[in-house]
Amino acid sequence: MEDLSARLAAVDERIADAAHAAGRDPSEVTRIVVTKFHPASLVTELYGLGVRDVGENRQQEFSRKAVEVGDLDGLRWHFIGQAQTNKARAVRAAASVVHSLDRTRLADALHAAAQPGDPVLDVLLQANLTDDPGRGGVAPAEIEALAAHAAGLPSLRVRGVMAVAPLGEPPAAAFERLRGLADTVRGVVPDATWISAGMTGDFAEAIAAGATHLRIGSAITGPRPERG
Ligand SMILES: *Cc1c(COP(=O)(O)O)cnc(C)c1O
After folding, report:
1. Of the residues 215, 220, 224, which should be mutated to test ligand 1's pocket, given the most ligand atoms within 8 Å of the CB?
2. Does the 2-221 domain belong in CATH 3.90.1480.10?
3. What is the pLDDT of residues 135-178, one digit of tens each?
4. CA-derived radius of gyration, the chain
5. Ligand 1: which atom is nearest the Cα of residue 200?
6. Model-level pTM greater than 0.85?
């Protein structure tokens, strides 16, 4: 617990330093702690340390953990993994924000999964910054059409873009491309100002490229337990 608190504080200090170096106000940047593969108790501990944004990338683990953690006032769950359309209701039921909207069918499924009284779901359009179409994310050439489609679904609110920096390329270059895609999306949805980018190894570069939401796991949680 003390270690967790020290790692959290150290990461927050590095975030503040990177923001200042980029001429930005650290309060513009939301730090999401990625808790995948860790037990629900870690989320509760983090909450006790003031963390209000946590991220999960596997739907089943996410749904289970959200139930186990229960209602914690102000806690926001960010879903950052590949979502199957037939799990849209489960994702929608537990997530405050879905970072991984990458196709029109998934947008339609998330919209159709809304139940009366559900709040509008914040979504980010995940861009594929690699040349490999098998990776998650919409191809950059198609992000504008996806934005227009999602913006037409009243139970979704397009907030911006998300990406993972590809291996084998300096992250700064990839994040600059993402910044350009964010501009494209804002041409369709003017208030879609969020940019979700930056993980343990590259969050300073992401902040320099305008990231508003960082998804940081191991630097805060420590090494992930073996996946089951
Ligand atoms: C696991 C994960 C992260 C966090 O990774 P770390 O390197 O541990 O910070 C961020 N984004 C996504 C999509 C992830 O799956």
Report:
1. 215
2. no
3. 899 999 999 999 999 999 999 999 999 999 999 999 999 999 99
4. 17
5. 9
6. yes
